[in-house]
Amino acid sequence: MSNSLNVTSPPAQPAPAAPSSASLPIRQRTSSFSGTTLGEERFFLVLAVFIGVFAGLAVVCFRLAIEWTSIALLGATPEPHTLRVLFAPAAVGLLIAILVIHVFPQVRGSGVNQTKAALYIFNGYIPFRTAIGKFITAALAIGSGHSLGPEDPSLQIGASLAWALGQRMNFSREKVRLLAPVGAAAGLAAAFNAPISAVLFVIEEVIGRWSAGILGSVVLSAISSVVVVRWFLGAQPLFRIPPLTVVRPTELLAYAVLGIVGGVAAVIFAKSIGYFRPRLRALPNWTLYFQPAVAGLVIGLMGYLGAPQIMGAGYQYMDQAMHDQFAWKMLAILAGLKILATTLSFVTGTPGGMFAPTLFVGAMLGGAVGGLERHFYPHLTGATGIYALVGMGVLFAGFLRAPMTSVFMVLEVSGDYSIIVPVILANAFAYVISRSLQPTPIFDLLTRQDGLELPSLEEQREESILRVEDAMKPPPDPVLDSGDTVLAANQQIEYSPANVFLVRWHPAGWTSVTRETLKRFASEGKTEMTLGSLLPPQRLPYLHPDYPLEMALRYVYQTPLVPVLSRADLLKLEGVISSEDVMAKYRVAQTT
Amino acid sequence: MDRVGFAQIMNRPAAVIASLTVLAVIGFAGVTRLVNRFGEQQKALARHLYEQGLAEQRAGKPEMALEHFRAALTYSRDNFQYQLSLARALRDTGRTSESETYLVNLWERSPQDGAVNLALGRLAAREKLLDKTIQYYHNAIYGVWPSNSDENRLNAWFELVEFLLRQNARPQAQAELITLSAELPHRPDLQLRAADLFVRAQDYPHALLEYQHVLQIDHGNPQALAGAGEAAFDLARYRTAARYLEAAVTANTQDTQSAQMLQISRLILDEDPFGRGIATSERNRRIRSIFEDAGKRLDACPNSSAAASSGATPTAVPPLKARWMEMKTKLARLGLRGESGLADEVMDLVLQIEQQTANCGMTPQDQALLLLAQNRAGVEQ
Predict the structure, then answer these.
(1) Chain A residues with CB inside 8 Å of B127's CB?
(2) Cβ(A584)–Cβ(A488) below 8 Å
(3) Span of A338-352, A385-399, A494-508 with lowest mean pLDDT
(4) Which residue segment(s) compose the domain that B222 sits in?
């Protein structure tokens, strides 16, 4: 099939191999469900539920694999000053490098960008082999202590499974493309046990645009995967949330400080990855065999010397940070070491996600800031645990630049809406600071380093939208009426330079007439007849001033003049727009 | 099946749904097996870590125990016992906030569980939250205990009373104790514990009654005898007190406190001028004797004779010695008709002298005088 996909292979993700069974190229496909009672739309929803179920099952196995690997390699409780903590990440790093180079070349990185690339470049196609490779290598990496998380790989595994399930169903191209985000949402929801955040993250980061059409299937798959995971692993949230106290207004200052610190930390984190990743990739090929091992050795050394908390996903330590288990200095050290460890793991191409490390850094940083503030201003700040919780959202907003997800994630994890104000405030500070100091979001930076150009919701948000009102001209003079006689109409247009005139049609509607037509009617002796009785019944399409300018393009080539009408009164003319007006506006916008 | 046939089947939604359902069922079965097997391994590992934690707790290494309880819970998150042990260890190491989180989670899962409520009650008691403590202890007392329920309930109840007494919430403590004593089985150790608590709550009538219940079962119990004697003594029932204290001292010759109280009780009984059936002459003799003793006390402790009474200014009230001298002249009239109030005046002065000279040390004689002066109408006849 890929022979007919006509895609360009990017450097980071080679062109996918052709699936042997598909009989038609996707771009030529039309839905085969039109004649059935179920219909493609409804069948896709049913399939979304199955995608969720299978993604849930896969994520359960993935989590078990990580835990089993961790126990086998690091022991039941990783303790400092043990040789296995020192050497396990390095040894596994070597194995992973061999697997990635020789067996699963597409599993490098977190999985979010790869899924997004699949959606926009490969029509949603992610080889099933990628899911298997990601499963094995990410489980080995995280289980051996590399500072990465299971969420992003779960997202990619879910997307790959979705493709595997849906590719033979003869869906239309539009639906086939949707398989990847549907599976991605299921995988992420199952990994994080938080369906709302997963749906929002997939919309913000994978799809990159708001689309009502996909929402139903994404939500269904996310919910069904979470149900499966809870069925097997229990319904407990990832963290035990400390008792939350209502935040006093004065305390918001402290959360604002947390937002600022988190924003700066997020920039340091993103810039480190952005700086080192291309440089390490530019090293000779033979170094690729040793890069994950060297990263593993450094991480193992950190664990050996007294910080085993930074190894692996580290959820239990986030939980402890939320319950005042560490002094603020220790929390700050752990946050710094985790940034270093995650940067090393990620830039060396070790497969694994950045979701959990981001939360880890956020929790530690939040706890540190809360602890420090409480140390100096004991009357100002509440429990440190709440700062750790808010800190997670802060880093999420600042580093991953998913502001909506960051707020909902904290709310979903805590189950308490009383902290919504500090969360929004701190996240907003972090987001603004991060955007100012690091204009390109981390995922966009990574895709550009891979030579890809994918849509970004953040960039879309920043784009100024041109509207019809920006290009339209004032109503022309005169505006004729369908009740006017040909004689009266000719008298009205006598001194007008225009050749085309709008005619208000009663009781509703608009049409147009040319000067030549009116003269012809007069020469034919129809001077006393009304325009309404002479003009054909077709009505002109019309626009409203707030419509995007793109919409005008659909109509301006059908008629020389498109009326722009008031939404309150369809007979009230706000202006007119022509193809020249639209083009002129675009030219001006491009030059400015 | 060739590719065309397969494609035809996949074009039928019903066939696809049926196939996916079968696949899902197979997947569920496989993952269930895997999860169960993994779960068993994890449970064994968790059990091992938990036992290590318990051993460390017993060895007095709470921090190490804590780490092992935590690790045990990593592998068996739902385990009630592990969570409870971790919560208790956290509480014992001062991490009350985290302990509370665990306990509240457990409480939400099983709000009627006695052990959880007791742990929450202890946590609230540690934070001196009176209402919360009472609420959780009551939940524990009336909650469900998997084993030794009566023993656990009574222990929780006693703990609650002790907490209330520590918080000086005597009326609540008394109320709890009265209800508790009604529920107590006929066991001397428990009744003795309740009686001691009644004494601490200064509810001497109930304390005496409880000690008497113990003595009905265990006649020669020295602790009960001493307690009954002390309770009777505090109730100013000196004759009863003397009887119990005598038996207590006989049963335990080392009991100096009972011996001292016995001595005071006997002195009171011997010197009480208001005793029933005493001849007037004897009554007057006892008053004079008490008065003389008070005078000697005043001479022996001159620093205290400057003020007449606490809170009174020296200029408003004559010094005690002057008043004593003045009273001595009046004392000649003791027993005469029309001087019925003189005995009370003498006893008032004696009381003031004993109070003012308290800082010179109190002999049993002085204590007896003080108690006589204080309880002149209440001394058991």
Answers:
(1) none
(2) no
(3) A494-508
(4) 184-271
How many CB contacts within 8 angstroms connect chain A with chain B?
A: 91
In 3D space, the residue among A186, A200, A138, A222 whose CA is nearest the CA of residue A400 turns out to be: A200
- CB distance from B205 to chain A under 8 Å? no
Residues contacting A588, CB < 8 A, separation 6+: none
Q: Per the structure block, which two tokens stand in for B146?
A: 């998997």
| pTM of the model as a whole | 0.68
Residue numbers of the domain that contains A575: 468-591
- Residue in chain A lying closest to B41 (CA): A68
Rounded Cα distance, B138 and B106, in Å:
17
Q: Inter-axis angle of helices A128-143 and A40-74, to 10 degrees?
A: 30
In the listed set B223, B246, B271, which residue is the last one of a domain according to the structure?
Answer: B271
Q: How many CA atoms lie within 13 A of A538 on its CB side?
A: 6
Last residue of a domain, one of B249, B271, B293: B271
DSSP letter string over A435-501?
Answer: HHH--S-HHHHHHHHTT-----HHHHHHSPPPBHHHH-BPPPS--EETTSBHHHHHHHHTT---SEE
Say if CB A344 and CB A298 are below 8 A apart.
Answer: yes
- Residue B103: strand pairing partners: none
* Count of residues making up chain A: 592
Least confident of A199-203, A249-253, A258-262, B214-218: A249-253
Rounded Cα distance between B19 and A133, Å, is 26
Q: Which residues pair with A504 in a beta bridge?
A: A481, A510
At B129-178, the pLDDT tens digits run: 899 999 999 999 999 988 888 899 999 999 999 999 999 999 999 999 99
ipTM of the complex: 0.74
List of chain B residues whose C-beta atoms are within 8 Å of the C-beta of residue A23: 3, 7
- Percentage of residues in chain B with pLDDT exceeding 70? 87
A254 in a structural domain: yes
In chain B, the residue whose alpha carbon lies closest to the alpha carbon of A167 is B10
Least CB-CB distance to B10: which of A50, A71, A168?
A168
Residues B252 and B324 grouped into a single domain = no
